[in-house]
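Quick one:
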Amino acid sequence: MNEKKIVIVGAGPGGLTAGMILAHRGAKVEIFEKENYPGGRNRAIRLGKFKFDTGPTFLMMKYLLEEMFEETGRKASDYLEIVKLDPYYRLQFPDKKFFPTGDIKKMREQIKTAFPGNENGFEKFMRKEGKRFRKLIPCLQKGYSSLGAFIDPVFLKAAPHLSLGKTLYKNLGRYYDAEQLKLAFTFQSKYLGMSPWECPALFTMLAYMEYEYGVYHVTGGLNMISEAMAAVVEEEGGTINYGAEVQEVIAEGRDVRGIKLENGEEIYADEVVINADFGYAATRLLPADCLKKWSAEKLQKKNFSCGTFMMYMGLNKKYDTMQHHNIIFADDYQQNVETMFKNHEMTEDFSFYIQNASVTDPTLAPDGKSTLYVLVPVPNNRSGIDWEAEGEPFREKVMEKIIAKTEMSDLREHIEVEKTITPREWEKDYNVYIAAEFNLAHNASQMLYFRPHNRFEELNNLYLTGGGTHPGSGLPTIYESGRISANLISKKHGIPYIKPSFDAKKILPNRQWEKSASGQNR
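Output:
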């Protein structure tokens, strides 16, 4: 690449992915990160001797993470200890608990017991959604820089499987009659910060991906992935500048030339990659006079995801009867979700997620102790909620729900350390635009070509990675956004690279769902 200089703003998962791939291909990579450690919202939080993930806790599509390391001639297993969870998580409804697993016989029996008459739907779900996934995944591995992408044979083959106009919840009616069982396959829309009653049907494949490829944990937390990627960047000769906050992108007209740091230093480059939160970058880092499609005024009219209220607790006790992942549904889940998304209000009855990772990972807390990570989906900051005033009262409501709905009736007595992050902190301290934790919503008018492009359409020499660009939010797709941007830059400068291709047989050659419980092919 003739030592082309690439500057990357932010050492989050997307920026680190792009950085390690480009450095391996011969670029001179410099990453500028305002914190003193890598990861962005995928970094660690340490409270004394307790360690937590800041944000993502589910690792899905492990093969995709492995591909990113393979892009640099490495194995992820040389850097990370990855553990498969089974069951994947506990789903708790008002009248029952459900423990999804990738074992088709166990899953079928669970459905038969908890939701009689629906047991045949699971295999139908896996067959049909597997077909959709295999058609759509190539569309998520390429950029959408022009409308011509929609006449690409890859997209044309996938188009019939988009199910435009149908929602995730409605699509699940093809497989199941039981209301709670449908919800068990819709909660994944929280990864997109969307309501399943509005989320496009194509995202039914999120649940499919979990059942097909598994749910994993990384020993030490998913933050270790960012640590490993940062190590690869530096092994490849790249530089990560910590404590270096970027003030603005330097542009001459529409041509980006580099960045300016908060200390006034200017760094020039051939290409700039933005890994900051997109809304924050568009309103704070990019030249306002160049933006029309993604101006601050236009952003105010876009649909954004929900926010999150977070609690991180170090306990002097372990709750071994809880699963690693636990999702506790509101008594009226639909009302809770629709009130949050449509009215930007909270209901007294709300859902929440608990990660009890110490039952799997002893490295996160001292012996006999544990970590507890609690996430409550809440409205983003368009709600006008004063979290400075409402934060502590809401924390009390969450504690009451945990105590009432789980085995942790004595939780208050065992908290040694605690930290909360409200939407106020997400926006003020973490630079998350309107505290929309999952970025731009993934409705049809904000996907593919209609999402901010990986090669940013309003400025030259500028590329995007992260949840605000294509393919979207969630760790696997953020890694893919980093690879897409790296490939676009490589293509521009004539550096050879192998286009990613999806091979289901290679990734998972013995798909058990293709056989009935008796072992006969269907």
